[in-house]
Design a protein that fits this description.
The structure holds two protein chains of two kinds. Chain A is an alpha+beta fold. Chain A folds into three domains: about 5-90, no CATH class; about 125-235, Butyryl-CoA Dehydrogenase, subunit A, domain 2 (Beta Barrel), CATH 2.40.110.10; about 245-385, Up-down Bundle (Butyryl-CoA Dehydrogenase, subunit A, domain 3), CATH 1.20.140.10. Chain A has eleven helices and ten strands. Chain A is globular, with a radius of gyration of 22 Å. Chain B is of the alpha+beta class. Chain B folds into three domains: about 5-120, Acyl-CoA dehydrogenase/oxidase, N-terminal domain (Butyryl-Coa Dehydrogenase, subunit A, domain 1, Orthogonal Bundle), CATH 1.10.540; about 120-210, Butyryl-CoA Dehydrogenase, subunit A, domain 2; about 220-360, Butyryl-CoA Dehydrogenase, subunit A, domain 3 (Up-down Bundle). Helices cover about 50% and strands about 15% of the residues of chain B. Chain B has eleven helices and ten strands. In chain B, helix 1 runs parallel beside helix 4 and helix 5 runs antiparallel to helix 6 (about 105-115). Chain B is globular and about 80 Å long. The mean pLDDT of chain B is about 95. Classes of the chains: A alpha+beta, B alpha+beta. Chains A and B meet through helix 9 and helix 11 of A and strand 9, helix 8, helix 9, helix 10 and helix 11 of B. Bound molecules: flavin-adenine dinucleotide. Flavin-adenine dinucleotide sits at the interface of chains A and B.
Chain lengths: ~400, ~375
């Protein structure tokens, strides 16, 4: 056992931190203040990350990556998240690209990986449908053979960044007679293809983040089918393994906790700074310990991956812990703000620029997306602990 | 003990439910978020005609002379539709302030128009800043700023505390809008689109008739905070109860894996937990209303009720979101209206820390 990072890892962290210090505008308040301004900054920083080879840190060298260890990636994600630096590319660089390395054809890798590596293309994920959320394999979008390709009809929903995306990877049913997992295929499509319509959905925080996407007789060339026909479920789940990383949730929670600690030091309560009050200290201590426990579990996931293992149970635990922690931390934050917890970012006197309230809204979605926490617990109990399935 | 309602109370509840659920739809509530008073004039008129704006006013003032339990019944139903508007500020805290703090002339002057819904009262109970009052001729000069002023831009009458500059005593004034030197700031951006903001008093001159409760007003203010907190707890539980109903309904309808999600025990347990939270907190909230009606010290009853409601209301919404999945995370879905109300309710009339001492006192701590 050795609970410390290697010299090389620490050196990487120092180099990254140095860059981060220069990368953000002085008054940058963290994503969410102004989605459009943030988006421009996001694209700018993404290209810079690409130039530095950090967008493709995890990719193998043969695809121009750095073949960085899982632990180095954790460090990268932690520091970027903690400092609220936009620019990372979850859908393209983290999810789709490694999936194509496993399941894509040579031609697909040649065509699709370089633009992702250069930070020039935005992908989105067309998995969920109105009637298929947790039960993803029940999806109904249809792709029917049509000449040298497929004609696609159906509706995708909750597509994050669908309105920003150049390309979409999606699942469609190619054999309606087969058992539900065995009739699905994985496709790629240009978002500008005729027949694709994007309808915005405003979320409960009042922001436009996700969308409904309809496919009406959308033609997708066969060259954009990934893996074999009707074997898309394997491709889809490979990708999901790249999606789930608890470290991002935990890092966000740690950052909010630190901001709150600073607020508590600076804010007077009845009889001295809030930070001196016993009940406040007790909550901080408990949350900080939970945060550290969650963090070390996320490190374990990275370590296991580095050993070549597939830590399904630990990854699910990490997602549950991190998302729950963020909900607890932000909710504690609102309690700490007391009467001022009501003030949103449009009010000048809103503490921490209303960021805690915004984060409180935002993280309501976290135990829901990327596999609900109930589904994660089903996985922990059945696949992880060998308990019998109930259905 | 009697947990039941009288026939008259049941009629009030059924009438309120019927009216509010048909009038205050999700679309209406959203529309009101930007409205200057938070209540469409025709709806406010109907509420006045139903006798709610004067529910606790005496008959000689045109009121219905009903008590806190009846008021709680109406407020629970309002919570159940996340009803926006100045009702709480005016007809609950405003009328209570005048009943507790006004002399006969002041009551006769101010209560009737509030009771008939013609005027809106705003009582400042949560300000983090203070106004000072100095004698000026036969009246008073008021100077300072107040924040967390309800119905800040639409109130006709502000009831506000001020510190007597010489004695340091807290006084309570009732000042009409339009008084020289009184300026309402703009409405704040808040989680549930309520109408809070700041009020500046720049040497505002008010007559002696504006001073409520001649002497020290801290007892009255304390009582008003209890009325506000106790009934806010009721409102929050009204919201939580409706969220429970919505979730039961949705879980019975939404299917995944070929069956309703409500058949999964993971989902059932979340909903059962919501029901446990609502039931336990609801009784405490009604007990607080009952205690307020009965008179005497209501500090413990209200502290317990508000603390429990604070914890229950937000928890219930959180569980409801989890059961609803992505659909509940949209602006289109009504659930967010309740989540916003719960967050606002928890922060108003005393957050949990503020009520902790009252609860600890029940343990002798
Ligand atoms: C902010 C946000 C962004 C998203 N972005 C994307 C995206 O970019 N692309 C995309 O494809 N999707 C996206 N999603 C969709 C997300 O993947 C789904 O919300 C998720 O899979 C859950 O599906 P659902 O919302 O339909 O809920 P449901 O599946 O209907 O679940 C409702 C409730 O039932 C429970 N439940 C369901 N089945 C079981 C079971 N077997 N056992 C126990 N409990 C069960 C769930 O845990 C939940 O509590 C996003 C969602 C959100 C909120």
């Amino acid at each position: 056992m050795r609970f410390e990072f290697s010299d090389a890892e620490e050196k990487f962290r120092a180099e990254l931190l140095e860059w981060i210090r220069g990368a953000l505008p002085a008054d940058y308040a963290g994503a969410g203040e102004d989605p459009d301004a943030d988006w421009d900054l996001n694209l700018k920083l993404r290209r810079e990350l690409a130039r530095r080879g950090w967008l493709t840190l995890a990719w193998p060298r043969e695809y121009g990556g750095r073949a960085a260890s899982h632990m180095t990636q954790v460090i990268f994600n932690e520091e970027m998240g903690f400092h609220r630096v936009p620019g990372r590319d979850a859908f393209g660089a983290r999810m789709l690209a490694p999936t194509l390395m496993v399941h894509g054809s040579e031609a697909q890798r040649k065509q699709f990986l370089p633009p992702v590596a250069r930070g020039e293309v935005q992908w989105c994920q067309g998995y969920s449908e109105p009637d298929s959320g947790s039960d993803l394999a029940s999806l109904q979008t249809r792709a029917v053979g049509d000449g040298d390709g497929f004609k696609v009809n159906g509706t995708k929903i909750w597509t994050s960044l669908g309105h920003r995306a150049d390309w979409i990877f999606f699942l469609a049913r190619t054999d309606p007679e087969a058992p539900k997992h065995k009739g699905i295929s994985f496709f790629l499509s240009d978002m500008k293809t005729p027949g694709i319509t994007v309808r915005p959905i405003v979320n409960m925080a009042g922001e436009h983040h996700f969308n409904q996407i309809t496919f009406e007789d959308v033609w997708v060339p066969r060259a954009q089918l990934v893996g074999e026909i009707n074997k898309g479920w394997y491709v889809a789940t490979t990708l999901l393994d790249f999606e789930r990383s608890g470290i991002d949730y935990i890092t966000a929670a740690r950052r909010v906790l630190r901001d709150l600690a600073e607020h508590a030091r600076m804010t007077k309560g009845p009889g001295g700074p809030l930070a001196d009050q016993a009940d406040v200290r007790a909550r901080f201590a408990s949350l900080a310990a939970q945060a550290e426990a969650s963090r070390i579990l996320a490190y374990e996931v990275a370590w296991l991956q580095g050993q070549g293992a597939v830590p399904t149970r630990e990854a699910s635990m990490s997602k549950v812990l991190g998302t729950r922690l963020m909900n607890e931390v932000t909710d504690f934050g609102l309690e700490l703000l007391g009467a001022a917890a009501r003030l949103d970012r449009g009010t000048d006197s809103a503490p921490l620029r209303g960021r805690i309230l915004r984060a409180r809204f935002d993280c309501i979605a976290w135990p829901i997306f990327a596999g609900t926490n109930e589904i994660q617990k089903n996985i922990i109990a059945t696949r992880g602990l060998g308990l019998p399935r109930s259905y | 003990m009697d947990f039941g309602l009288t026939e008259e109370q049941k009629l009030i509840r059924d009438g309120a439910r019927q009216f509010l659920r048909t009038t205050a739809t999700g679309a209406y509530v959203r529309e009101m978020s930007a409205h200057p008073t938070g209540c469409r004039p025709d709806v406010w008129r109907q509420i006045a005609d139903l006798g709610w704006t004067g529910l606790i006013a005496e008959e000689r003032h045109g009121g219905a002379a009903l008590g806190m339990i009846e008021l709680a019944i109406v407020i629970e139903e309002m919570g159940a539709v996340a009803f926006p508007g100045p009702f709480f500020s005016s007809a609950v805290v405003g009328l209570s302030a005048l009943k507790l703090g006004g002399n006969r002339e002041q009551q006769d002057a101010h209560i009737p128009p509030i009771a008939e819904g013609a005027r809106i009262a705003s009582v400042v109970l949560e300000s983090t800043e203070m106004v000072s009052a100095s004698r000026a001729g036969s009246g008073w000069s008021l100077k300072g700023r107040l924040d967390y002023v309800p119905e800040v831009t639409s109130a006709d009458l502000y009831v506000l505390p001020a510190v007597e500059s010489r004695s340091g005593k807290t006084l309570l004034f009732a000042i009409p809008r339009g008084t020289d030197g009184l300026a309402a700031g703009k409405r704040w951006d808040t989680v549930s689109h309520d109408r809070l903001g700041e009020l500046a008093l720049d040497g505002a001159m008010v007559g002696a008739d504006c001073l409520l409760n001649g002497d020290d007003a801290s007892t009255v203010l304390g009582r008003l905070r209890l009325v506000g907190a106790g009934l806010k707890a009721v409102e929050m539980i009204g919201g939580a109860g409706r969220v429970l109903e919505m979730t039961v309904e949705y879980a019975g309808k939404r299917e995944q894996f070929g069956r309703p999600i409500g058949s999964f025990q993971a989902v059932q347990h979340m909903i059962a937990e919501m029901a446990i939270q609502v039931s336990s907190a609801r009784h405490l909230a009604y007990r607080a209303a009952w205690q307020l009606e009965r008179g005497g010290d209501a500090g413990n009853a209200v502290g317990l009720a508000k603390l429990r409601a604070n914890e229950a209301a937000v928890r219930v919404c959180e569980l409801a979101h989890q059961c609803h999945g992505a659909i509940g995370f949209t602006q289109e879905h009504d659930l967010q209206l309740y989540t916003r109300s719960a967050m606002a309710g928890r922060a108003s009339f005393g957050d949990s820390r503020a009520h902790r001492d009252a609860v600890l006192a029940t343990l002798g701590l």
